[in-house]
Each structure stands twice: as structure tokens, then as C-alpha cells.
Amino acid sequence: CVDDDSERGVNTAQRVEAVFVSGRGGSGKSHLVQKCGEFLSKQGWLVAGEKFQRGLEHNSQGVVCSLLDKLVKQLVRMKNGSVHKDVKYSNNVAKMLESSFDSSSLSSLMWYLPSIQNLIEGTNSVKRTSFVETNLTHWQLVFLVTRFVQSLLKM
Fold it and tell me: How far apart are CA 104 and CA 59, in angstroms?
């Protein structure tokens, strides 16, 4: 897997790659995604996957939140790991989240992305935020998730 942009010196830090895999049941899609994810993770990529269930009620909100929470869990693993640059990066992400959101917004976001609590624990400025069930409208959640993703892309 060679990234042509990085070979040309193009900044790829803010680029997000997404792959959608579809096909007949039992054709090996999940296995393919798992193996590709393992390979890319070893190359230093943050990889997360999620399944859309056909025939069930529309749950794109749940799928997106689950996918983002998996990415936050990877950041938590990096924070708790032994690689200095990973620890530093994940701590910087935690501090960025704290500075980008007021406590109420962060608490609401944690209801949908609970792993954020584990990411921000132990940072110097964090005041342990207790998150309670929140009744955000769809658009309020879209706004918070968009700000969350924009903040991550600035890192």
C-alpha cells in the first residue's frame, strides 16, 4: 500500500479515507475488511469498521456513533501504550477536545461516544465530567459530531 501523495511530500494528515464493501452474504466481506484493517493498523493507520444491517430500521446515527467511538477507543489504546509519539498524540487529542467543547457539550457528546471519558481521564485540566442521558435533537448531535470530527482533523 503506497501513498502517492506522501511520496510527493503532500500533507495527507487531514485526508480521510473511507471504503464501503458490499456483496452477497457469506462472500467473505467481513474477513476481507478484517484482514485489510489488520494490515493498515500495522502501517500506523487508525482503522474502524461497522456493519449496516439490511432490513432493519434506519440506524445510521447509531452506526456513525459506534464507528467514531471505535476510533476513540483506538486513541485510548494509544494513550495507554508504550510508544511515546502515540501517547503524546492521544494526549494532545484529549486536550484539544477539552478546549474545543464546553463541559455541557462534551458531556452530551460522551453520551453517544462514551470512550471519550477514557481518553480525557488523567489530562491536567480535566474535571471529571459525569455524563447523563441527554435528549439532543438530531441536528444538535450532527453539530457536535461534526465539531468532533473537525477537531480531530486539525490534529
Answer: 25
Q: Are 129 and 106 in contact (CB under 8 A)?
A: yes
Secondary structure string (H, E, C) spanning 19-78: CCCCCCCCCCHHHHHHHHHHHHHHCCCCCCCCCCCCCCCCCHHHHHHHHHHHHHHHHHHH
Name every residue whose Cβ is closer than 8 Å to that of residue 73 and which is 6 or more positions away in sequence.
115, 118
- Report which residue type is found at 74: Q
Q: Helix or strand or coil: residue 81?
A: coil
For each of the chain's 155 residues, which pLDDT tens digit applies? 334 444 444 444 555 667 777 777 788 888 888 898 888 888 877 777 777 666 656 667 888 888 899 989 989 999 999 999 989 999 999 999 988 898 888 888 888 999 999 999 865 444 444 545 567 788 888 899 889 988 887 77
The rounded distance, in Å, linking the Cα atoms of 96 and 155 is 8
